[in-house]
Amino acid sequence: MKSLKAQNALQKILFYAGNTIIGVIFVSPLIWMIAASLKPEAKIFANMNSIKTFIPEEASLDNFIEVFRRVDLANVFKNTLTYILLILVLDLLINSICGYALAKFRFRGRKLILSFVVALMVMPMEAILLPMY
Question: Mind telling me which SUPFAM superfamilies this protein's record contains (predicted)?
């Protein structure tokens, strides 16, 4: 009985240690990006083989100020809204026509198309969006 408890404890320790290592591997690029954004441009790639990479010596927001100075965010926002509205209108128009055709007309392959539509609805959106980028 005692060996079973010891085995369960060892399994838990290995499970949590493995998850911690995987978590650090996945989170470290995000931490590096945040740390690099707070460093001067000349020091971003200094000390790449050290833990000092993740700790900015002189934290400043100059990089963020420079981005807002260089980029016309109002124009970027306007372009994004224009693109989204155009895609939205075209998407609604095309999908409405296709939905009407699938609902009202009987043709060969209709059930197969409906099966694909239902299968795509079941898939998580992340799995569909990932290949786009």
Answer: MetI-like
Q: What is the mean pLDDT of each run of 10 residues along the chain (133 residues)?
A: 78 96 94 88 76 80 88 93 97 96 93 92 84 71
- The whole-number pLDDT of residue 1 equals 52
Instruction: Name residue 66's amino acid.
Output: E
pLDDT of residue 46: 75
Reduce the secondary structure of the chain to three states and give it as a string.
CHHHHHHHHHHHHHHHHHHHHHHHHHHHHHHHHHHHHCCCHHHCCCCCCCHHHHCCCCCCCHHHHHHHHHCCHHHHHHHHHHHHHHHHHHHHHHHHHHHHHHHHCCCCCHHHHHHHHHHHHHCCHHHHHHHHC
**Which of these, 74, 96, 93, 73, lies nearest to 85 by C-alpha position?**
93
